[in-house]
Specification:
Number of helices: 12
Number of strands: 20
Helix content: 25-40%
Strand content: 15-25%
Oligomer: single chain
CATH superfamily of the largest domain: Alanine racemase
Distance between the termini: 58 Å
Bound molecules: pyridoxal-5'-phosphate
Number of domains: 2
């Protein structure tokens, strides 16, 4: 039977082994060592094209700006650039990387809550498309800086839309209690104050309703809210904005293989299994806004507008796979009560396990931080026995000297499955693959426990395998230490 995680031409079983774009995952693991991140150029391009399809359903220009925070490896940024996708950066460091890769200023937007003067200077000097402003104080800093540089800064004001989505609490960014953005009335006062500024080009409004949003409806609500602000700004100040930025947050279906679905509480299940076409969400949002614009004689405000999106996860998550080796195995008596395996919903003839079988891998939360901070789920398969029945339950953990370095919910709140299903008799040295690992993984990795940061490779469209990050060596562990 074909495993449901397969994606034709990308993730496939070949002779019981996992192939990624036709390249054997186990051979890659052997050649480059594990943990190893493998990215697919064709999948990245596919994901960008999927997002860009939204342009077919709206009557204005669309600018898709990949959120570099999700993964800003230089070769990944170059791939994004070559796919004609623009870029959202979140720091002077990411801005520098973007420029190094060759993005022109007009293809870059710059977010962030705590920008420093040198970052603002660089953003202004390189004439980026928009600096997205988080507060009135920050706007005054930008005005001062632009004045000093005798330049005009393009700015877009980030609003607090007060929209709650059904995503993870740590990924909500649009609430009154979230740290981002300014209230709409503050923004309006800024448009009044700086309307005639020679140093600020007030060109847009922005919001971001959070990451991994499981429903598409909040996008319509958010677009409507931005549009109402756009109208009010025009009516009160005469300023016609040139863009609206709807942010990112389009979800990835982490449970496409549904074998573990029943082990999640409902809210987590719905969030991880979220799956909608971004272009459908945008189409719907556009239609609603267009209708209200027509009804209020404000359609002219949409005429020359550009709609911006800032997707990260939906571009890079499923394009990245983490290969890991089982380094250790042990058995423990089943705990008395914490999880009643017999009573669980696993349809598994082998449910009469006597002991917990633990597999200790070389992929811990130092390379997949969200597993610990957000109890994030990455589906796990055997890369060596990909077509065998995955029906034997294991406790999985990483290599770190930290009790939280496990693939289940250590706090006992059941937000993740207690067990992972893999083929029977997994032994040390077997290569496993964690799927959908491309976003917020290597972007957040660190050398805890003196662990070498992993190699990263990119499989090009022509199937050539390119090393895009070399594994750390001993010297890398002390590069910046002074001793
Ligand atoms: C302002 C902003 N834009 C875009 C993104 C990208 O979100 P996602 O990766 O969910 O598409 C984020 C992520 O948190 C963000 O904070």
């Amino acid at each position: 039977m074909q495993p449901s995680w397969e994606i034709k031409g990308f993730l496939e079983v070949n002779n019981n082994r996992l192939d990624i774009n036709g390249v054997s995952a186990t051979e890659l693991a052997e050649k480059y060592g594990t943990p190893l991140f493998v990215f697919s150029e064709s999948r990245i391009k596919h994901n960008i094209e999927r997002l860009k399809r939204a342009e077919n359903f709206i009557d204005c220009k669309l600018k898709v700006c990949y959120a570099a925070k999700a993964n800003s490896n230089m070769a990944i940024l170059r791939t994004v650039k070559n796919a004609n996708c623009d870029l959202e950066v979140n720091s002077g460091g990411e801005l520098w990387k973007a420029l190094e890769v060759g993005f022109k200023g007009e293809r870059i937007i710059f977010n962030g809550t705590s920008k420093e003067i040198w970052e603002i200077e660089n953003a202004i000097k390189t004439e980026i498309y928009a600096i997205q402003i988080d507060s009135l104080f920050e706007l005054s800093l930008i005005e001062e800086t632009a004045r000093r540089l005798e330049k005009r800064a393009n700015v877009s004001l980030r609003l607090v839309p007060e929209i709650e989505t059904n995503t993870h609490s740590g990924l909500q960014t649009a609430l009154l209690t979230s740290k981002f953005g300014m209230m709409p009335d503050e923004a309006l006062s800024a448009f009044h104050q700086y309307r005639d500024s020679d140093f600020l080009n007030l060109c847009g409004v922005h919001l971001h309703i959070g990451s991994q949003n499981p429903e598409s409806a909040p996008y319509a609500e958010a677009f409507q809210m931005l549009f109402e602000n756009l109208v009010q700004i025009y009516e009160e100040t005469g300023i016609k904005l040139s863009h609206i930025n709807l942010g990112g947050g389009f979800p990835v279906n982490y449970l496409r293989d549904a074998s573990h679905k029943n082990f999640f509480p409902e809210a987590e299940r719905e969030m991880f299994a979220a799956d909608f076409e971004p272009s459908d969400a945008i189409k719907n949002a556009w239609e609603i806004v267009k209708e209200s614009a027509d009804a209020s004689n404000a359609a002219h405000l949409l005429e020359n507008i550009t709609l911006l999106l800032e997707p990260g996860r939906s571009v890079i998550s499923d394009a990245g796979i983490c290969l890991t080796t089982v380094r250790n195995r042990k058995e423990r008596p089943l705990p008395d009560s914490r999880f009643d395996y017999q009573e669980s919903k696993i349809q598994n003839p082998k449910s009469k396990i006597q002991n917990d079988v633990w597999l200790l891998t070389d992929a811990g939360f130092n390379i997949l931080l969200s597993m610990e901070t957000y109890k994030w789920y990455y589906h796990l398969i055997s890369a060596e026995r990909a077509s065998e029945a995955h029906d034997f339950p294991y406790k999985l953990a990483g290599p770190l000297c930290d009790g939280g370095d496990v693939y289940f919910d250590i706090e006992g709140l059941g937000r993740l499955p207690e067990y992972r299903l893999l083929p029977e008799n997994v032994q040390p040295n077997e290569i496993l693959a964690l799927l959908n690992c491309g976003a917020y993984s290597i972007a957040q990795m660190f050398q805890y426990n003196g662990r070498f940061l992993p190699s990263v490779i990119l499989i090009r469209e022509n199937s050539e395998v390119e090393l895009i990050r070399k594994r750390d060596d001993f010297e890398d562990l002390i590069t910046n230490d002074i001793w």
